[in-house]
Predict the 3D structure of the following.
Amino acid sequence: MELRLPDGRRAHIQVPEGRHILECARDAGVELPSLCEQGWCCTCAVRVLSGRVDQSASRRFYEADRAAGFALICTGSPRSELVLLTHQLEAMRAFRIGANLPVPRGPTLAQP
Amino acid sequence: MADKPHASGRVKAGDVTQRVGVEQLEKRGIDVDQLIEKLVDAAGAEFTTYYYYTILRMYLAGNEDYKEICEDARLEDRAHFELITPRIYELGGTIPYDIRTFADRAGCPDAYLPGSENGKRPMKNSRDIVTHVKADDILEVLLEAERCAIRTWSEICDITFGKDLRTFDMASRILQEEIEHEAWFIELLSMEREGVARPSGHFRRGDPGDAPYSKNRGFYNP
Ligand code: FES
Ligand SMILES: [Fe+2]
Ligand SMILES: [Fe+2]
């Protein structure tokens, strides 16, 4: 699968069955933001440019999130070939607020 | 006045609508609005954790030592909520007026009882309790809650370090206790699940939930 960072970098990583995207990215040397690592806080949010992510391990993920093109990679596993745009906390937070869905409001230090 | 740089600033004498305690943070590069949001998320997580640990510790029958340690972590999380909440107000903020909003925006997940279907398990009435819960599953919930707390307070320490000494002092006290909590639950979960010793190096609290750092009490150092 492919990770696109907002600064233009691209990383191709392997995510074996049953593993989560964030930990495999880290194993491959790609540092990405996270906080709860349980699929709750949206710090690790990405935009799904193509493919499908299994979020069954996430603590709080809504169908509306998926429909809006977001995924939480700390607890997300690929269901297909994937292209993901990373560092989407702000966008996902704005979406949740607009959709009247719960989301933490604090900033994260991790910037691309 | 010009030769006294600390006596200058935009807050006029007698102006109670401004805070020099905030102005000085902004001068040092702190985004106070953002800091308040982060503190509310963190306070929310401490508050929900306190609630959920109340349930978790009820399900540790036969592991009386685990119960006590869970109780220490529970009460210390309440102490963390108590320590940081006044700071939110001091900075000019507030916690949400509705507790549901507060819990929903917590920076860390609800620490649900294993077997409660993420809290959604249908119940006939309040005596319809979950009857089978394994200690190691509870310890894992506790451990992951502490890890989220460590990441949260570490970030707040990073945001405030060298700029907002007051919030930094509070956050670093809380962080110290969160690090102890993680070490306790690693020690217990490791032995319970794998039979492997991974000592935490400490356990002793004076009274339950002593909170030596966040309540500024003596910590154990015989
Ligand atoms: S790190 Fe919190 S949702 Fe992924
Ligand atoms: Fe805490
Ligand atoms: Fe804790």
